[in-house]
Amino acid sequence: MKLRAFVAAALVALAAPTSALAHAVLLERVPTYGAQLATAPRSVSLQFDQTVDAFPTSIDVRSASGRVMTAGPTSTQDHSREVVVPLRRLPKGAYTVRWHVTSNEGHVVSGVYTFGVRVKPPPPTEAYGAGGPTKFEYVVRWGYFVGLALLVGGLAFRLLVLRGRTTPALERRFYWVVGVGVVGSIELGIVGFVLRAADAFQLPLGQLVYGDLSPLARGTRFGEAFIAMTLGFAVVAAFLFLAWLLERPVFLWPAFVLGLVLCSGLSLSSHSAVEANSSWRSELADYVHLVAACFWVGGLVMLAFVVWPTAPGLRREAFHRFSQLAAVLVGAMVLAGAYLAYERLPAVSDLWQARYGQVLLIKSSLVLLALSWGALHHFVVAPALERGRGVGSLAVSRSLRGESGVAIAILLVVAVLVDANPPAKPAPRPTQAVVTPK
Amino acid sequence: MEPPAEVVHWLFGVGFVFLSLCLLAEAIVGREVWRRRAWRAYLWPGIAFLMGVLMWPVMVFYTSSAIHMLAHSTWAQVMMLVGGAQLGLVRGKLHNPLWELTLPLALLVSGLAFLIHEQNPWLFSRSAFLHHALGWTMIAGTVITLGRAVQPRSTAFNAGFAMIMVATATLLFCDRNLAPIFGHLSPLAGGR
Fold it and tell me: Do the Cβ atoms of A268 and A228 come closer than 8 Å?
C-alpha cells in the first residue's frame, strides 16, 4: 500500500508542471561575427530562443582602442527575446562586442565577437580586452607539444627506426607512450581551447560554461585548427587502438601519416600563417621545424624510456639508426629555425631587446646544449656501441634520459615563444622625390 | 549548417538499438550460445567504440555553449573507453577483470554529464525531460553494471544492462528540439 502511494505521488510530481526555468541560447547576432561591413550599423542586436533579462550594460561595444561606442542603455524587444543597444556613428575600424544576459534560471549566458566597418576585424581571441595567455596556458601548451612529440615521434621511431624489430615488452611500452601522446593531445587541446575562450570572454571558468563558443570555433584559424585536430586525433586514436588490438602494425602507418598532416594545423594557425608578412615559405618552414622537433624529442624518449629498459638486444641497432636520423632532423630543424628567426626579427638587436627575441635566445641556448649532448652521443657513444662497448652501461642510459629531459624543457620555452609576438617590421620609407629647382 | 540536434540524437538512437539488440540476444540465449561464432563477441563493444569515435564531430560542431561541448567530449571518451576495454578483454589483450569496471564508470560519468549539462527542469520541454530521464537511467545502469562486473554470467544483470540500452535508445528517439512533455511546454521554451 505504501509502495503504491509512493509511486502515485512520484508520478503526480513528475506530471505536474513546475515553474519553468530556462537556459537561453543565442540564435542570431546583427551584425554577425567576423562581418566586414560597408556601412556602420546603428545598433547591435542579439536574438535568443527564450526570454532573457538584460541590464543597461548587457551589451558592451568597444573600438580597437577601447572607446565605448554604445549610445545608450541596452533594452529588450520581442517579448524579451531580443536584446538591442544603439550605437554611435562608428568610424572605419574594428569593434569588439561583449554581451552578458541572465537566463530565467539565473545563469549568466555570455559571448564575445568582433566585426569591422570597412576593415577586416581581428579574431575574437584578439578582441579588445583579451589579456593574452596566462602561465597556466603555457603549461597546457607545453603538455600539448609533449603529447604531440610522443605521438608523432614515437610512431616515427617505431616505423622508421625499429622497422618491425621489436619485443613484446617493448611493444607494450610503445603503445603506452603513443597512447599517452594521443590522449594528451586531445585532452590538452580541449583545455587549451577553453582557456583561450576564457581569455577572449574575460570571464572566470565558472561563468564560461554557458558561453557561446561558436565565434571562436568557426571564426578563427585557431578554432578551425582545434576542430580539425580534435577530429583527426580521435581517428588517430582509433587506428592506434586497432593496431594494438589486432596486432597489425600496418594500422600504425595511417596513424603516422594522419599525425603528420595534423601537425600542419599548428603551423597554419601560428604566427607563420597569420602575420602580415607571412608566406607559404614561412608556413612550410614552421611545419618542417615542428615535425623535425617532434621526431627528435619523441625518438629520444622512445630510445631512453622504451628501447633501453625493455629490449637490450635492440639497443645498439636502434641507437645507431636513430643517431643517423637525428643528424638529418637536427639539420632540418636548425635551417628552418634560422629562416624563421630571420623572417621574424627585423634587427639583430631584437634578440636582446624584444621579448620574442629574448625567449628565442633562451630557446637557442637550450638547443645548443641539447645539440652538444647529441653530438657526444653521435660521435663518441655510437662508435663505442658499434665496437660492442657500453651496451649495458648505466651511464649511457642516464645520458639518454638527460638529453630527453633537455629536449622536453625546450618544448616549454617553445610554448612561451609561440604566444610572444615578434617585433613589428619597420614600415618602408617613402621614396623621396628628387626636386629639380626650376 | 549542422543538422538539427534532434536528428543527431536519432542517429545515436540507431546505434543504441543495434547495441541493445546484441546485448538482449546474448542475455536471452546465454553467453556460451551467443559466442559460438567468435565474431559476435566483438559486436557490442565494436559498436560502442565506433559510436565514441562518431561523437567527436558532434563535440566540435555543436559549440553553442562550453558545457555542451564538454559533455559531448565526455561521452565520446567514455564510449571509446568502454568499447576499447571490452574489445581488449574479448581479444585476450587485457586480463585484469578490473577493466570490467570501465562500464559502470562510463555509465556514471555519462549520467552525471547528462544531468549537469541540462540546465532546464524536468517539465520545461520534452528535450529537457528526456535529458533528465537519460541521466537517471544511466545512473541506474551504473548499479546494474556493477552487479554485472561481479557476476558476469548473471542473466538478470545482463538483461538489466540490455534494458538500460533499450531505454536509452527509446529516449533518444523520443527527442524533439521543441515539443511538449505530458502536454506541457514552458512558455519560455521559445522557438521561432
Answer: no
